[in-house]
Automatic annotation (TrEMBL):
It is found in: Cytoplasm; Mitochondrion matrix. InterPro entries: Cyt_trans-like, Depp_CoAkinase, P-loop_NTPase, Rossmann-like_a/b/a_fold. One of its GO terms (biological process) is coenzyme A biosynthetic process. This is Bifunctional coenzyme A synthase. Its main location: cytoplasm. In the central section; belongs to the eukaryotic CoaD family.
């Protein structure tokens, strides 16, 4: 049985560690299931009197780049104490260590020294020596393309004040490389701008981006865990330059290849403000070797991470005393042209029963029903066609120009649709359906989710929704946008969703969800 949290200690000379990182990580991941801390022992750097920044950043980049391939399900955290020559042992870890692993075998006096050094981390479990059981006879591998960087400033310079920036939505390997490179070069204060507001507008699946407070809290927890010696200045930013435009203390900035042009723009602003220029350090993009589809980005990214959340349980269902455990009733909703009906058909094809509330809406208007009579009483005979049916074209202009009248319409029609839906659900239960989909555009507005075990939401990028409305219904762009604006927003729906789908991409990717 694997431990939840482990501490992997590199003891071999650091240049020997580099080619062995993939195998060592793969072996360590077999023993840990949740969080893997990594520490650089003094033995690994005993030949250096001072931190070798350019060498260390290769090791850090390799570790995090390889974890995206070998340890996808682990939260890997490289402790900076050993890399910055601050301490022989980690200063502390946020999560208690259950298992200690060394990268090679030791015995006799050497083993006694190591066990004494890490006695505060070695508890009931004996340490594991990965070299003897998993990584013997390794071939040299000098392929370090994931770790090569372009340094604008002197490679081994340490700065008092360093700055980084990003969205930092669910920290991944690319984020951790960026942050670790900043930490490695920082002596006193690290500033991080965290994108918010207009900077998120064009992000893929922006509705799934964590709230700014949560992203900053997660970022701070990670930074304090891997290097508690620094001061951290974590600030929301709504423009790309953030505090780099005016903060006189900043000395260097770490950026990715995608954003390196921003250093030139930042320094131009700082020259105008009479400030010092920022030295720049550029990190390479990390290739994503675990893509589920060509629709995902080729690099490790938060966008691909959010795409992989589609079709998964984002938050556990809330138990409802009024509902039996079976069958499972799933409320499926989404905005206009979000692909909700398409998803419902796919679920039908997978064996679920489907209740189409749009069709039930037509039934609710049928002549002779209580709902029919209530509508005429509320809105007059002018809404009745020559054949006796409710004329929706006549009713529309009456209610859509008045919130009060629209609310009145809904108060009459929604309860009737709910009643018809409950009847349809009973029929599907009798037919033996174990999963029933309640397909309803106004599921949340009408509060029909109260008789659903889960809420599944379909979303689509606004521009794509507008295009679909224009193409399908022949509406103008302005008309399409007004239709979208009059509905509940994607963000409001997602906040109440257990599962989210998006039909933005090809058929196969939707089916995968």
């Amino acid at each position: 049985m694997s431990a939840l949290t482990g501490l992997l200690i590199f003891t071999q000379p650091i240049k020997q560690i580099l080619p062995k990182i993939p195998q060592i990580l793969g072996a360590a991941c077999e023993h840990v299931s949740k969080t893997l801390y990594i520490h650089l022992d003094p033995l690994a750097v005993s030949s250096y009197k001072s931190p070798q920044v350019s060498l260390y950043d290769r090791v850090l980049s390799q570790i995090y780049a390889r974890t995206s391939q070998h340890c996808q399900d682990l939260d890997v955290r490289v402790l900076m104490t050993g890399f910055k020559h601050q301490s022989e042992i980690p200063l502390k870890t946020l999560i208690p260590i259950e298992l200690v692993m060394f990268d090679m075998s030791y015995s006799g006096n050497e083993l006694n020294k190591l066990e004494q050094r890490y006695k505060s981390f070695i508890h009931t479990n004996n340490p594991i020596f990965l070299h003897s059981t998993h990584v013997s006879n390794l071939a040299e591998d000098h392929d370090n393309e994931d770790a090569s960087e372009i340094c604008v400033g002197p490679e081994n310079t340490i700065y008092n004040d360093v700055v980084v920036g990003g969205t930092f939505d669910r920290l991944h390997a690319g984020h951790k490389i960026l942050l670790s490179q900043g930490l490695l070069r920082c002596r006193s204060r690290l500033t991080s701008g965290v994108s918010e507001g207009p900077l998120l507008k064009n992000k893929t699946l922006k509705e799934l981006i964590l709230p700014i407070d949560q992203r900053i809290a997660n970022l701070k927890a990670f930074l304090m865990d891997v290097d508690p010696t620094l001061d951290y200045n974590l600030v929301p930013i709504t423009d790309p330059l953030g505090p780099t435009k005016w903060d006189p203390k900043m000395e260097m900035i770490v950026v990715s290849e995608e954003t390196k042009k921003g250093v030139v723009i930042i320094n131009a602003e700082r020259i105008q403000g009479g400030l010092n220029l920022l030295q720049g350090h550029v990190i390479n993009i990390v290739e994503d070797l675990c893509r589920n589809s060509d629709a995902e980005e080729a690099k490790v990214s938060s966008s691909s991470g959010r795409m992989r959340l589609l079709g998964t349980l984002l938050q556990p269902p809330t138990h409802k005393d009024n509902l039996p455990d079976t069958p499972c009733i799933i409320g499926l909703t989404g905005g206009t042209d979000s692909g909700k009906t398409s998803v419902a058909k796919r679920l039908l094809g997978l064996g679920a029963g489907v209740v189409d509330c749009d069709k039930l809406g037509h039934e609710a208007y049928k002549e002779g029903t209580d709902c029919y009579n209530e509508l005429i009483k509320a809105f007059g005979d002018s809404i009745v066609s020559e054949d006796g049916s409710i004329n929706r074209r006549a009713l529309g202009p009456i209610v859509f120009g008045s919130k009060e009248k629209l609310d009145l319409l809904n108060s009459i029609v929604w309860p009737e649709i709910a009643r018809l839906a409950q009847e349809k659900i009973k029929v599907l239960i009798f037919e033996g359906k174990k999963i029933i989909i309640l397909d309803a555009a106004v599921l949340l507005e009408a509060k029909w989710d109260t008789f659903c075990h889960q809420v599944w939401v379909c979303i689509i990028k606004r521009d794509e929704a507008v295009r679909r409305i224009v193409d399908r219904d022949g509406k103008s762009v302005d008309e399409a946008e007004r239709r979208i604006d009059n509905q509940m927003s994607n963000e409001q729906r997602v906040a109440q969703a257990n599962v989210v789908f998006c039909t933005q991409w090809d058929y196969d990717y939707t089916q995968l969800q």
